[in-house]
């Protein structure tokens, strides 16, 4: 089942809609669940909620998945510029957007200080980092990578799906080289073969970041989505693979 509620996002001074997935028998048991936090929450579960009319189909997958999870889908600002700022962890210069005064750090502080405590108080979670994951695609994929590196004390698992890391490579090199990763850290990376045709260098960038986090002891998984492009229809096909790597392997 998916419940929706608004939650105050202080960095922008406005609410953000939360799309919360609970196992169908949640209210009939006393079980506690691992938690997956995901960006672009409106695009996760239902096509009718999705920006471009196509979701990741995550509800149908989870309804039939052997491991029961709570998924906290965090909706973003729907203004493109605001979304980029919320989902950018660094102050960057972009060839497309120009100067980006990234507020991604504040987004994660909101998760750490407000949203996660709220979820842990009001739902039956396993609150420890070993049972807490972060995932996202595109800008959300960059945030998922930032979350697992900068907030590794909260998250032990991450799926960085087609991460938009090109303008942030120097920042990530510094972040990873100067940071500490727990040895149980798992990071999934992906890109699409069609996506690579118009995003030259994405594979090399991801492989470089993978090598850096491996030097810190993280376990990684690279996935090239053959025929995959930079869209939800392609990313839906990756769900079973990253779920397997994060929770089963």
Give the gist of this structure.
The protein is α/β, with parallel strands linked by helices. It has nine helices and ten strands.
Task: Give an account of the 3D structure.
It is a single chain. With 249 residues, this protein is an alpha/beta fold. The chain is 36% helix and 24% strand. The protein contains 9 helices and 10 strands. The protein has helices spanning 58-63, 80-86, 104-122, 139-150, 169-178, 193-198, 202-215, 232-236, 239-248, and strands at 2-9, 14-21, 34-39, 69-74, 91-94, 98-101, 132-137, 157-161, 186-192, 219-225. The strands form 2 sheets. It has an 8-stranded mixed beta sheet, with helices on both faces. A two-stranded antiparallel ribbon has the order 5-6. Helix 5 packs parallel to helix 7. The longest helix has 19 residues, at 104-122. The mean pLDDT is 92.
Outline the low-pLDDT stretches.
Answer: none
| Helix percentage | 25-40%
Number of strands: 10
Net shape: globular
End-to-end gap: 26 Å
Q: Determine the number of helices (DSSP H or I, runs of at least 4 residues).
A: 9
Amount of beta strand:
15-25%
Largest sheet properties: 8 strands, mixed
User: What's the SSE pattern?
Assistant: EEEHEHEEHEHEHEHHEHH
Helix vs. strand class: alpha/beta
Query: How confident overall, as mean pLDDT?
Result: 92
| Neighbour order of strands in the largest sheet | 1-2-4-3-7-8-9-10
Rounded Rg: 17 Å
């Amino acid at each position: 089942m998916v419940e929706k509620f608004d939650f105050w996002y202080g960095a922008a001074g406005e609410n953000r809609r939360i799309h919360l997935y609970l196992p169908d028998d949640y209210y009939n048991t006393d079980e506690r669940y691992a938690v997956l936090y995901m960006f672009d929450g409106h695009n996760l579960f239902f096509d009718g909620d999705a920006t471009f009319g196509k979701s990741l189909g995550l509800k149908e997958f989870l309804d039939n998945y052997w491991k029961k999870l709570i998924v906290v889908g965090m909706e973003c600002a729907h203004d493109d510029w605001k979304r980029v700022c919320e989902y950018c962890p660094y102050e960057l210069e972009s060839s497309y957007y120009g100067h980006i005064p990234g507020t991604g750090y504040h987004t994660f502080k909101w998760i750490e200080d407000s949203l996660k405590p709220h979820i842990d108080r009001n739902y039956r979670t396993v609150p420890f980092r070993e049972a807490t994951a972060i995932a996202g695609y595109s800008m959300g994929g960059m945030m998922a990578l930032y979350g697992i590196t900068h907030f590794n004390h909260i998250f032990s698992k991450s799926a960085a799906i087609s991460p938009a890391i090109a303008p942030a490579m120097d920042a990530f090199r510094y972040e990873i080289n100067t940071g500490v990763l727990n040895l149980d850290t798992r990071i999934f990376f992906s890109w699409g073969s069609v996506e690579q045709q118009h995003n030259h260098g994405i594979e090399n960038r991801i492989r470089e970041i993978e090598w850096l986090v491996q030097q810190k002891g993280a376990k990684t998984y690279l996935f090239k989505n053959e025929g995959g492009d930079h869209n939800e229809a392609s990313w839906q096909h990756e769900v079973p693979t990253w779920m397997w790597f994060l929770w089963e392997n």
